[in-house]
Amino acid sequence: MQSELIEYYDGDILLEGCLVQGEGFGPKPLVLVAHDWTGRRQYAIDKAHEIAGLGYAAFAIDMYGKGVFGADGDVALNTALMGPLASDRGLLRQRINAALDAVSVRPEIDATAVVAVGYCFGGMCVLELARMGAAVQGVVSVHGILAPGEAVNAAITAKVLCLHGHDDPMVPPEQVLAFEQEMTAAQVDWQMHVYGGTTHAFTNPGADNPDFGTVYSSIANLRASHSVQAFLAEVLIRPET
């Protein structure tokens, strides 16, 4: 695997993502990887490597700014970093779209074949990418926040997959139902996979904190990886095939 740190901007905010890809000829389908509320740390880069190993180009995006990171277990810091974007979905949409614009122009990228996968806060981010009508073929929210903000939605053209822990205290059943109703009303091709006995952040060992409602689950993580792989294979069919 080859990895490259790429600087890009959202207005005057300098950001730094990490592009991971294997060798091979021709443009590759692109998978944006949106980080959790701690920023574009090793967890997000590891997920990018996992996805790139399937034959895609994976870009671990930066939602906070170059060198700006939270920390596992530091609720106050992570909330302070995530809060301005979570409360201003227009700004959030602009920020994630800046990542899409920055990497889509690269010659090794097939900009007609793009999926965004987000974890926790990143799940919120990729759902907003779909809600804004961005030119992506699909989005995957993995233990993400499903509730919409105040930003006006465009027509959603992306396929949507949500991987959710039934016992997630941050996403109660009424939020799940409201999201399903939202997607149905918008005539979206959507899926919801719910894992029983599973809480928030189930793919992230570093976020394991039962008192906070975040518990890593090896089996849910494995199931989620299989679901992401199947979704990418379905959505990112190269034109020449």
Do you know the CATH topology? Rossmann fold
Mean pLDDT: 96
Q: What is the molecular shape?
A: globular
CATH architecture: 3-Layer(aba) Sandwich
Account of the protein in words:
The chain has 241 residues and is α/β, with parallel strands linked by helices. It has one domain: Alpha/Beta hydrolase fold, catalytic domain (Rossmann fold). The chain contains six helices and eight strands; from the N terminus they run βββαβααβαββαβα. It has an eight-stranded mixed β-sheet, sandwiched between helices. Helix 4 links the parallel strand 5 and strand 6. Helix 3 packs across helix 4. The chain is globular. The model has no long low-confidence stretch (mean pLDDT 96).
Identify the notable features of this structure and list them briefly.
single chain, 241 residues, alpha/beta, Rossmann fold, eight-stranded mixed β-sheet, globular
